[in-house]
Amino acid sequence: MLTSHTPESWIALRSMPSVDVRAPAEFRRGHIPGAHSIPLFGDETRALIGTLYKQSGKDAAVRRGVELIAPTMNLLIEQYHAVAPTKEIRLYCARGGMRSSSIAQMLTLLGFRVHLLQGGYKAYRNFVGELFTTQYQFKVLSGKTGSGKTDILHALAKLGEQSVDLEALACHKGSVFGALGTAKQPPQQLFENHLAESLLLCDAARRIWIEDESARIGLCTIPQSIHRAGPMCSIE
Asked: For residue 111, what are the domain limits?
């Protein structure tokens, strides 16, 4: 069974495993949080097929693509069974085109229930951009470096308050402490995607606590509509 979804309804199925079928380089630049990478084509193969599509048309590109993936088909099937043992899965590619559609058709023949993202990752990114224009009820926690803003943010969350830890999402502790003791910073797209996912878990009608940050946290830029978007609450 195959079902197509808007980004909003696709994301609402977040408890279900999801797979990004784009090439590894595309996945590294940015992907939907939680997605597994099972590329239909590697980076070089994708470039080859793209060039063939432009020079010789769709039919030639599809035929060559089938030839190239045929030897790996069994491995692909094994990977999907491992990711989705219940045989229900979410899929997306760059624009909801041939890559995700071809995998979806194969999986439905194997008895999977497939949920396809209409418009692919591009539609998801448009959805993220629109989400950042929502009028959230932000409360901005301000204070000097070392005053314990992050600790207070986490304490508020334990008390049932809504909060978003921008520094944790950016894997960076701010201008003084930098990336000390943190993982490598995510690409800008992935930072924005994680921020969007955090906001989706919040009730926009209730206040959301965030820390007062510069426009950039290390290499990650806070969306302008969110940066200092609410009243300040200062601590010493």
From this structure: 2-129
Q: How many CB atoms lie within 10 A of CB 112?
A: 21
The reply to whether 93 and 37 lie within a common domain is yes
Question: Which residues lie across from 221 on neighbouring strands?
Answer: 216
CA distances, 127 to each of 10, 12, 165, 192 (Å): 11, 13, 21, 11
Inter-CA distances, 156 with 139, 200, 210, Å: 12, 18, 11
What single-letter amino acid sits at 50? G
Catalytic sites, residue numbers: 93
Q: How many domains does the chain have?
A: 2
Do 110 and 142 share a domain, yes or no? no
Residue pair 99/126 in contact by the 8 Å Cβ criterion: no
Same-domain check for residues 49 and 147: no
| List of long-range contacts for 195-203, beta carbons under 8 Å, 24+ apart | 195/164, 195/166, 195/169, 195/223, 195/226, 196/127, 196/128, 196/131, 196/132, 197/11, 197/33, 198/164, 198/169, 199/131, 199/134, 199/136, 199/164, 200/11, 200/131, 202/136, 202/162, 202/164, 203/162
Residues 154 and 197 in one domain: yes
Instruction: Out of 114, 129, 144, pick the residue that ends a domain.
Output: 129
Summarize pLDDT for 148-173 with one digit per residue, the tens.
788 888 898 899 999 999 999 999 87
Q: Tell me the residue type at 63.
A: R
**Tens digit of each residue's pLDDT (9 = 90 or more) over 95-130:** 988 889 999 999 999 999 999 999 999 999 999 999
Please report, for the domain that includes residue 7, its CATH number.
3.40.250.10
Give the type of residue at 101.
S
